[in-house]
Write a structure and sequence with these properties.
This protein is mainly alpha-helical. The two termini are 31 Å apart. It is 79% helix and 0% strand.
Amino acid sequence: MFRRLVGMVAAFAAIAAAAAVCVVALAFAIYAALRDVIGPAWAATAVAGVVALIALILALILTRKARPKPVKGDSQNLTAKLIELARQRPLVAAGAVAAAAAVVIKNPRILTAIITAAFASRPPPPPPKR
């Protein structure tokens, strides 16, 4: 079980690293293509705009397909409330994702704690008393 978890975390980290390399390479390519045409300041602005647009599109796609199952006894749990908020206000959701990413970049231990909590197995229920 532990090896499987470590493998999943390693695969997630590899995919995230590959995505980061692709985004950085795309940013350099866009900047290099636009630098001579519109100047360095506007080229940097265009790169920031393209990256923000990509993040917005990904946020819209991910929040559109998410449909959590309600928990027994709870008409609407926290996850359902957050997804409903993201559907109603996608720009606010994109801003919240950007803020969370900034916090995680500044302190990677937070991401480690979140991943550990997400993949931690719950303890078995106590045996019935006789």
